[in-house]
Structures are given as C-alpha cells and as structure tokens.
Design brief:
Blueprint: H1 16-32, H2 42-48, H3 52-72, E1 77-78, H4 80-98, E2 102-107, H5 114-117, E3 121-130, H6 132-144, E4 162-169, H7 177-183, E5 191-195, H8 204-216, E6 223-229, H9 231-242, H10 250-257, H11 267-272, E7 276-283, H12 284-290, E8 294-295, H13 302-312, E9 317-324
Helix pairs in contact: 1-3, 9-10, 9-13
The structure holds S-adenosylmethionine.
S-adenosylmethionine binds near residues 112, 198, 201 and 202.
GO molecular function, one term: methyltransferase activity
Pfam families: LCM (PF04072)
GO biological process, one term: methylation
Length: about 325
C-alpha cells in the first residue's frame, strides 16, 4: 500500500481544495490533544498523525489557541471544525433514534471518520463523496492503519460501526447522482446528506444545483445538514482580497480566493427555492455557546471584522438543518 504522505509528510497528489481537508483534520487533531477536548478521533490520529506537515500544523494550532486563551483570559477556545463535527454527530444520533435503516451521504467528506467513530448500527450505510484525489488518498490511509473498509469477518484495528461504507470519487459540480446511484444509494430509503465545509468551494449556481439534486433523490423523511459562509463573511472576504488598506498576506488572500460563494441573506427562501424546508438555522458562534466553549476568532480576521462588520453585520458561518420540501401535486 502506498504512503501518499511521502517521506516529508507533504501530500503531493492532493489538489489545493483537497488540501483543505488536511487543514481541518489538523485543527481537529489539535483540539483532540487539548485538555477536555470537544472531540477525540483515534482513527484520524492514526491516519495522518505520522505526517510531518500535519504535525507541524497541529503544533502551531495548539500554540495559537493556548496563546489566545491566555490573551483572552478564557479556559477553552475550541477548534471550530471539532464543534462543527460534533454538531453533525448529534444530529445523526438524533436521526438514528427514529430510524433503524437509513443512508448517510457525506459530501466533500475529506478525512471524516464517522463510520468508525459513531455506533449507528448495521442498518446504516455511509457514502463518502469527494474528489478522486482525496478519495484515493483517504482509502490508502485507511488501509494503511487497518481500518475496515468492507463487511468481512476479520479483526480490524478500526472496525466499521455501521452496516457498510463506500468512498465514492465524484466531482460534485458535475452530474454526480448517477455515479452515487451506481455505488448503491437507494432513492427509496431515507438519506441524511451532510455537507460540512463544502458549499463555499463552488459558485452559487453549482451549489443550488447540488441542493436540488439532493432533494430529488430524497424520501420525504430525509434530512440535510449543511454549513456555509454567512453573507457578511463571504462579502467581507472578497472585499478584503481587493482592499489596498491591508498588507498583502498572500496565504490568507489565496485562502479567501478559493471561496466562490456564500449563503444568500434570505436563508430559508434560498433553501426553499432549491427544494428544502429549513428546520433550524444557527450561527456557528451560537453553537459554540451551546457547547459551552468560546469561539476562536482568527487573529488575522481582526482587521477584516473591524472594517466590515459595522456595515455588513457579524462575520460568521451558518449551520442549517433542513428537510425535503413537500412536493405540491
Ligand atoms: C474543508 S474540506 C472539509 C472536509 C470535511 N467535510 C470536514 O469537515 O472535515 C472540503 C472538502 O470538500 C471537497 N470538495 C471541494 N469541492 C468539491 C467538489 N466539487 N467535488 C467533490 N468534493 C469537493 C474537498 O476535496 C475537501 O475534501
């Protein structure tokens, strides 16, 4: 089995967008290594914990959050992506309480490890969709650490805790549904669609098409969990890139340039026009409060917030739970 992280720990076969999955994974590992973490993830630790690049990113992330805690005088500045993941875990467990048999489709799955972490039972199958480079990288890493990939009777270091898992290499801005159906998804079984940290890497037209396709393949009792930049954050990030007032920080400008869209201001109207009824919409900052942790505000957003928040409102992320809109006949 090839080790795609290579000797230096870099991941040369991953595209820039797929690399963002490594960044959020590093943030989750940093959180897992802190006192009283929001989330621990032994499999993730094993999968990428040996990568020099990720270890360096984790170390930096831990140091930054510790420093921020000292500066702000708070006990716990939890990693954003761990709270996001924990929120999704809770929604899935809640859905499981009323459904024995369902499918979970994780779109832009990156290094999500839920099939090995969440005990949802044998009636649940999971489809991980990501770009081919990330899907192949993940399969390699899973095999390398002896995570179970299919239902067999062998003893694995990380057994599947659901009924079946498939990594499906697809581009979600293209015609992806036929490929997913071919992989086994049934349109007669309830689905929970999970899209965390994905929508802003596609333009609004592609995002809207994605929402409509998911709705078209859903039973009435299916569910969608999605996150997106709020309108203020997306608008501010794009102004910031072009704003001569700010010194050029190529890294952060490149990062914001990879964002292609944000959630329109009318969240429920936008979702409704693409086949979904909003059940709940919360800002990430509110969810952090629910989990009793203080949200880490990136230091490099301080200036951006100072300049744009008075006009645009709070720069934040939406977390939306929705159900398919009933079809009127
Ligand atoms: C920021 S990462 C989030 C990963 C994961 N959901 C998590 O929260 O850890 C974004 C992921 O979306 C994937 N992605 C972005 N655009 C995509 C597309 N058009 N088709 C499939 N996957 C895509 C990237 O490859 C990457 O793995």
């Amino acid at each position: 089995m090839s080790d795609t992280t290579g000797a230096t720990g870099a991941s040369p076969r991953l595209t820039a967008v797929a690399q963002t999955a490594m960044l959020v994974a590093a943030a989750r590992l940093a959180e897992a290594r802190r006192k009283n973490p929001v989330l621990t993830d032994e499999l993730l630790e094993a999968m990428i914990g040996s990568s020099a690049e990720v270890i360096a990113a984790v170390r930096q992330c831990v140091q930054e959050t510790q420093q921020q805690e000292r500066d702000d005088g708070v006990d716990h500045v939890a990693s954003f992506t761990s709270v996001r993941m924990k929120f999704g875990d809770c929604q899935l467990q809640h859905f499981r309480a009323s459904h024995d048999t369902f499918q979970i489709v994780i779109l832009g799955a990156g290094l999500d490890t839920r099939p090995w972490r969440l005990d949802l039972g044998s009636g649940v199958s999971v489809y991980d969709i990501d770009q081919p480079d990330m899907t192949n990288f993940k399969k390699d890493r899973l095999s390398a650490v002896d995570a179970q990939l299919q239902m067999d009777k062998k003893n694995h270091r990380f057994p599947l805790r659901i009924g079946g898992w498939k990594g499906v290499p697809l581009d979600l801005t293209g015609p992806w549904l036929p490929g997913l159906l071919q992989s086994g998804l049934s349109t007669d079984v309830p689905s929970v669609w999970v899209a965390e940290g994905l929508f802003y890497y596609m333009d609004q037209e592609a995002g809207s098409a994605l929402l409509r396709t998911m709705a078209s393949a859903s039973t009435p009792d299916s569910m969608l969990i999605m996150t997106h930049l709020n309108h203020a954050l997306f608008t501010a990030s794009q102004r910031f890139i072009a704003d001569r007032e700010f010194p050029t920080d190529e890294k952060i400008k490149t990062f914001y340039s990879s964002w292609k869209s944000g959630m329109p201001e009318d969240v429920s109207g936008y979702l409704a026009s693409n086949g979904w009824r909003v059940e709940s919409q919360q800002l990430m900052s509110e969810i952090h409060k629910e989990y009793g942790v203080t949200l880490a505000r990136w230091k490099n957003t301080t200036e951006m917030r100072r300049k744009y928040e008075p006009e645009l409102g709070t720069l934040d992320y939406w977390v939306v739970v929705a159900s398919p809109k009933p079809v009127v006949t």
